[in-house]
Amino acid sequence: MSSFVVHRDGHEASAEELAPLAFAGYAHFTAMQVREGRVRGLDLHLERLRVASMELYGRALPDDRVLACLRTALRAGPADLSLTATVYSPVGEFTRAEAEPSLLVRTGPPATAPHGPLALTAVEYERVLPAVKHVGEVAKTYFLRRAVERGFDDAAFVDRRGRLSEASIWNLAFWDGAAVVWPDAEKLGGITMGIVRRRLERLGVPQRVQEITLDDLPALAGAVVMNSWSPGIAVHRIGPVPLPEAPDFVETLHRAYRSEPLTAP
Predict the structure, then answer these.
(1) In the 8-state DSSP scheme, what is residue 215?
(2) In this structure, are residues 238 and 152 in contact, taking their beta carbons and an 8 Å threshold?
(3) Which of 55, 115, 171, 252 pairs as cysteine with 193 (C-beta 3.0–4.6 A)?
């Protein structure tokens, strides 16, 4: 019978193996949506794990080992699911000791994106090691909850230079009426963002990277957030600034994402 799993290095994880991870924060991960046993941007997920492992541990798991663990987890579950692959050091935190990283793979029900348009509050915040999708980021949930208390749906981050970078668990993208505009700031390069960017290039849709502040928003024609749940959810307000919903922009992003083939690990 198909079920969701938690595997460590390709086998069912025991309570003894999981217990030390309850308070562990020196780890990184990638999250994906699996449909019919396949994934979009699998190469980008593998690259993310390699690069982050080299940054944190100075070594990375071979791609074939990661793929074998993904396949083992997928065989145990339904065709459609969410999957998170977390790489961590079994020697734990606060130590100079080195060890071969371990891989924790967890599956669960497929995720669905919230309905837009969304309103984002703007908060001054910069993530540590923003290029790494690391765990234990209390600020993301903290700012999300404070945003909801204030009547917003989520939070967008503004760095010390006043530049919009990303949202709590989302990348930001903007539309100027003719081109997709990606914010120029220190941020996590999302997998969905990577898929959309390379597919927009193939479709011939103009795109560019530039610094964007709250003062720049009135001149733009639309904004979205994106992550593994969706390649584009309309944003109608960031802080005090309203934004057009731009349905054609949203559809362009979804069309670009759909053109990326699904791949089996």
Answers:
(1) G
(2) no
(3) 171
